[in-house]
Amino acid sequence: MSALMAAAPHLADSAPEPRAARRADTIATLRDVRRRVRRRRVLLVTALAVLVVALFLVRALLGDYRISFVDGIRMISGTTIPGASFIFMESTLPRAVMSVLAGAAFASAGAAYQSMLRNPLASPDVLGINLGASAAAVFAVVLLGWSGMPVTAVAFLGAVAVAVTIHGFAGRGGAATGRMILVGVGLAAVLSSVVHWVLLRADVYRAQDALVWLTGSLGSVTWSEIARLGAVVAVGVPLLTLVTGRLGVLALGDDLASGLGERAHRLRALVTTLVVLLTASATAVCGPIAFVGFLSGPIARRLAGGRTSIPAAALVGAAMVLAADYVSAYAVPGTAYPVGVVTGLAGAPVLIWLLVAQRRSTQETA
Amino acid sequence: MTATVPTTSGPATPGPTATGAADSARPADATTLSAESLSLAYDKRVVVEGLDLTVPSGRVTAIVGPNGCGKSTLLRGLSRLLPPASGRVLLDGQVIGDLPTKEVARRLGLLPQQPIVPEGITVAELVERGRHPHHGLFRQWSREDEDVVADALEATELVDLAGVAVDSLSGGQRQRAWIAMALAQRTPVLLLDEPTSFLDIAHQIDVLELVRDLNAREGTTVVMVLHDLAMAARYADHLVAMCEGEIVAQDAPAEIVTPEVIESVFGIAASVVTDPTTGDPVVIPHRRKRELT
């Protein structure tokens, strides 16, 4: 500021007091805007976190067999309660934890990709990245008889193969997002038939196993799978959050991002790696749960007033999977649907609402 | 302020010594930007070939020429967005492509022709993004950042709109917001690609006055692509006339804006008269006679 005053002495000499007062006003205005934005963000993340905790407790404690909160705590700390322990520790609690992890993984990956590619259609599930992981995993599990960590590795390779293919078709600079989406949608269809083909060729005795790879399911979750995905989410989501600010610069367009000293292609490669890692790890465990990555980002954006927020999106995704899994397990008595069926059914109307709302808001501003 | 612009300088050497001795408060160690036998191409299509240019430091330079002559391509080359097919661009004597990109971004600012407006963000947030090159991964927002952003908002008269979403602004306000962002970057060199396109005459003047103010206050070297020859003549110290990827002529506006140069660059016949109030050259294009054969 002092340098500026020195460079413009005629302004400083003529009216030093009003100028200083004006500067104080400007700073106050700026701080006010920053405070409002920050307050809204904190409020939103807190509200969503409360929602996720509430849904988590409902999912873990209020199944067919009701468990009190105190009993839940006692079982987690090691006490065995006959009858309750098996249901809680082997079914409802792991499913609740996995819902949070898978929801957060799919949603943060989706929101980051949509933000990076500046297109709400450009989420990993629409682009076939989930199905790339799914096809590779089902191949390894059903035809090769693998399990555990190698399946996650193969799923990751499948997701990488899809990501590389669609980015390759998009051409250098990655500007042709439209072409990328078309190729991705086509690849997703092909990979979906690959999954069907493998399942038809193999003797799949348990319908649950097949459902995992077709629509996504939390029916057979183990604690070791939770630990694996938990580690990826614990690293991946904070890293994605950290680069969101830089994605905000990328949102101004590649030229301006370069002008501001950001290496667009390097940032894109970093984000793509994280997105593929999160998506593949979640898919390797619970299959390509439909619409979570696609919907969480736009919902979080609307709640956050148009801004991309990875933590908000991750929480929206967690809430979505928790709610969908609860509904899928208990909505129709005696029948359990895979969670992906519910997210798919619930996702379609939300998608339509989003499209209509988006259209309306662009018309208003136009 | 355009009245004090020197009207004679050698066309072959438009360097700092030739044009820099005039009115603006230019620091002695001004950042220099130049191109040496620069060729630029998109894939195999060569747009600019073997071009030499030394941007006059501390001055406002306008690149003019017909559509498709390579004006914007040259600006992309100067700002390292388009790597040279051959030749080189030097920023402070160093090859620009070899410098760390953030280092370049602290010395050279760039406003592309049609930047993308991100959804939902306020004017204040947009302008704050201009501070990006000055921040590391973990550096906190500082009092200095706050002051620089306040400066930019005051200079562009956007303080009252600081909390308004950029996508709800009018075209003129939006352009001012982009310029405020570029100002917040605080670079000694600023490249602007058609900053006045899509603006009406009053808003064009607003933007160009802002550019002149910036140059006068901070001694910022400005290079802008303008398609309006009259505006370029009025607001620039130095004109670079391009045609088919080459520099046809470069000099002070009064030397460049002649019927002969206009004829050779734009392929139109025109008269040039002198503005009675400012002494600037004014272009009056003739109507083209239709040939009915």
Automatic annotation (TrEMBL), chain A:
The keyword Ribonucleoprotein does not apply. It comes from the Bacteria. Signal peptide: none annotated. The chain crosses the membrane at residues 42-62, 96-114, 126-146, 152-169, 181-199, 205-223, 230-249, 269-296, 308-329, 335-356. Gene3D superfamilies: ABC transporter involved in vitamin B12 uptake, BtuC (1.10.3470.10). GO terms for molecular function: transmembrane transporter activity. It is a multi-pass membrane protein. Keywords: Cell membrane, Membrane, Transmembrane, Transmembrane helix, Transport. Coiled coil: none annotated. CDD domains: TM_ABC_iron-siderophores_like. InterPro entries: ABC_BtuC-like, ABC_transptr_permease_BtuC. GO terms for cellular component: plasma membrane. GO terms for biological process: siderophore-iron import into cell. Its main location: membrane. It is found in: Cell membrane. Belongs to the binding-protein-dependent transport system permease family. FecCD subfamily. This is Iron complex transport system permease protein. It comes from Knoellia remsis.
From TrEMBL, chain B:
Gene3D superfamilies: P-loop containing nucleotide triphosphate hydrolases. It is a peripheral membrane protein. SMART domains: AAA. InterPro entries: AAA+_ATPase (IPR003593), ABC_transporter-like_ATP-bd (IPR003439), ABC_transporter-like_CS (IPR017871), P-loop_NTPase (IPR027417), Siderophore_ABC-ATPase (IPR051535). One of its GO terms (cellular component) is plasma membrane. GO terms for biological process: iron ion transport. It comes from the Bacteria. The keyword Nucleus does not apply. Residues 1-22 have a biased composition (Low complexity). Its main location: membrane. The keyword Nucleotide-binding applies. Keywords: ATP-binding, Cell membrane, Ion transport, Iron, Iron transport, Membrane, Nucleotide-binding, Transport. One of its GO terms (molecular function) is ATP binding. Pfam families: ABC_tran. This is Iron complex transport system ATP-binding protein. The lineage of its organism: Bacteria, Bacillati, Actinomycetota, Actinomycetes, Micrococcales.
